[in-house]
Write a structure and sequence with these properties.
It contains nine helices and nine strands. It has about 250 residues and is of the alpha/beta class. The protein folds into two domains: about 5-140, 3-Layer(aba) Sandwich (Rossmann fold), CATH 3.40.50.10770; about 150-250, Arc Repressor Mutant, subunit A. α1 (about 15-25) packs parallel to α2 (about 50-70), α6 (about 155-165) crosses α7 and α6 packs across α9. The chain starts with 5 loop residues before the first strand and ends with a helix.
């Protein structure tokens, strides 16, 4: 990934000029910004309320460009799409992504139509973008995206065992040695080699914890005053995954 290159893609709404400064201060700075807006926003309507809404959106985009352009290195770009369907949204995001696939992407889904916001959120799954929204109290919050399908997770029951062990720790963390020892007692060999018993190996343990870390179901850090001894803890996503697994097994 290009160091420091961060692209925000926004669904156009009446307040994007207000939500953007909050996002760059609380979510991530931006080196480039794209605003996706429907074509009809620039068309007149016979209905006063709709006409006023479209006017506010156009004005918000204009103000965003004024506010953001001085400090957004690679500019603020507006992209007009025919309709807020997934096909149009997908094509726009893909065209942006293929030019800079090594950048980190952030999707602001606070404004715009529901279809446009949902479309951006769905595309976040494909390119591993970080979706976020700014709520009514002007607080920016990221939206967690599952990193693994529940079926893929359950193909190895030892992953579930690790989450169960960590979830029971009153201290919230567990040293690697203790986690390895506890898992060894419950270890279920995945591949049947004909042996009466197979013990948990370091390589297998490391592979499983690596997957769980990549999926952000557990966290890892070094014990205080030690640069070698690792400790693990279950994350909020891990706790939710464990609840879902337990529910599906009932």
């Amino acid at each position: 990934m290009t160091e420091g290159h961060k692209i925000h893609i926004m669904s156009a709404g009446e307040n994007i000029h207000n939500t953007f400064p909050i996002a760059v201060n609380n979510i991530s700075p931006a080196t480039e910004v794209y605003v996706i807006v429907e074509k009809r926003v620039y068309e007149d309507s016979d209905y006063p309320k709709i006409q006023e809404t479209r006017r506010k959106i156009r004005e918000s985009i204009k103000q965003l460009k004024t506010i953001a352009s001085p400090f957004v290195k690679n500019g603020v770009h507006e992209i007009v799409i025919e309709e807020d369907t997934l096909d149009y949204i997908r094509d726009v995001v893909f065209n942006i992504y293929k030019k800079k696939s090594d950048a980190q992407y952030y999707f602001n889904v606070s404004g715009g139509t529901k279809a446009l916001s949902i479309g951006l959120f769905m595309m976040a799954l494909w390119i591993e973008a970080i979706p976020y929204h700014v709520d009514m109290e002007s607080k920016a919050k990221t939206i967690a995206i599952p990193k693994v399908h529940i079926h893929d997770f359950q193909t190895n029951p030892n992953r579930v065992r690790i989450l169960e062990i960590l979830s029971k720790q009153k201290s919230g963390t567990m040293p690697r040695k203790e986690l390895f020892r506890e898992l060894s007692k419950q270890y279920i060999p995945i591949r049947d080699t004909g042996k009466a018993k197979r013990e948990l190996k370091d390589g297998v343990f490391n592979s499983m914890t690596k997957d769980l870390l990549r999926w952000k179901l557990i966290g890892e850090e070094f014990r205080e005053k030690s640069k070698k001894e690792k400790i693990y803890f279950i994350t909020s996503d891990g706790e939710f995954t464990l609840k879902f697994v337990n529910l599906s097994e009932k």
